[in-house]
Amino acid sequence: MTAIEKEDLEYQYSPSRWSHRFDAEAVVQDHVRVVQTETDKARAQLQCELDVPYGDREGDKLDIYKPDNCRSDAPIFVYIHGGYWQFLSKDQSGFTAIPLTAAGVMVVAVGYDIAPKGTIDVMVDQVRRAVSFLSEKFPSSSGLYICGHSAGGHLGAMVLSSDWSKVRDGRVPAIKGAFLVSGVFDLTPLVKTYVNEPLKMTEEDARRNSPCLFSAAVVKNHPKCKVLVVFGEHDAPEFHRQSKEYTEQLKGLGMEVSCVEIPDTDHFNVVHNLAEEHYQLTKMVIEEMLS
Ligand SMILES: N[C@@H](CC(=O)c1ccccc1NC=O)C(=O)O
């Protein structure tokens, strides 16, 4: 790869450089401010259980945000945060909880060990165990829905392609739907970029953890799961491409999948606007989960 090719590839995989709202530094700052403020608000206002352990690793913790008078059949929105597998945490990931709990949905923010503490394999294993744990903890829920943003979209897709016989009790959790927002479904282009510096993935690690190479497992384990693939108008062309290709792949295998480009959003507010009840995606999520 020439220096120019590397520069182009890194530009494509630098979401902050494509924002129509702010420059690169400011858009990340704004994102962190919004997700932190809205999570703090949710923690102050709502009934929540924080730091619930889902396994034995120190980072195996999740936060649960409950609707008032929570019904035992409340549907569950499991949120897997983004941040290129190296930024953010569950402590900034309850920002969807105020509008979603108001609609009767239980919100869970999953924690996992970002790099350099965790490798991609560790993170994938953690989110799979978290979903298995939730399906056991809330057996009467009307449905488990996975939502992931960016790197979390990748982890959410890896949850769908799990070999569940190797996760906890071996049971397949009934996942009713997935909202994959500005996700990465092929990790191989990232190996040669700055994104990989703390991750230290080899080509083989990247392939083993690329959802686009394991889509057959999604159909096998979760044939009825409805998938919504979402990206921002001002996401980089590579993110548009990855979302569209993964959508087509799942469609080709007979899954019920739609792909939606949200106008006037970039890589960051495409997800953090879920803190607002009138945002297009908030309404789509609620409609899907209550149908
Ligand atoms: N280097 C990345 C940084 C990035 O993606 C990011 C940084 C902080 C928090 C979240 C991020 N990305 C997605 O959630 C970028 O250029 O956007």
From TrEMBL:
EC number(s) from the headed UniProt entry: 3.5.1.9
Q: Where is this motif: HGGXW?
A: 81-85
Checking HAMAP family in the record gives:
KFase
Which residue numbers delimit the Alpha/beta hydrolase fold-3 domain? Answer: 77-267
InterPro entries (UniProt xref)? AB_hydrolase_3, AB_hydrolase_fold, GDXG_lipolytic_enzyme, KFase_ver/fungi-typ
Which family, according to UniProt?
Belongs to the kynurenine formamidase family.
Q: Does the keyword Ligase apply?
A: no
Q: Which GO terms describe its molecular function?
A: arylformamidase activity
Identify the metabolic or biological route this protein is part of. Answer: Amino-acid degradation; L-tryptophan degradation via kynurenine pathway; L-kynurenine from L-tryptophan: step 2/2
Q: What is known of its domains?
A: The main chain amide nitrogen atoms of the second glycine and its adjacent residue in the HGGXW motif define the oxyanion hole, and stabilize the oxyanion that forms during the nucleophilic attack by the catalytic serine during substrate cleavage.
Keyword vocabulary terms for this entry:
Cytoplasm, Hydrolase, Nucleus, Tryptophan catabolism
What protein am I looking at? Kynurenine formamidase
A GO term (biological process) for this protein?
L-tryptophan catabolic process to kynurenine
Instruction: State the species of origin.
Output: Branchiostoma lanceolatum (Common lancelet)
Superkingdom, according to UniProt? Eukaryota
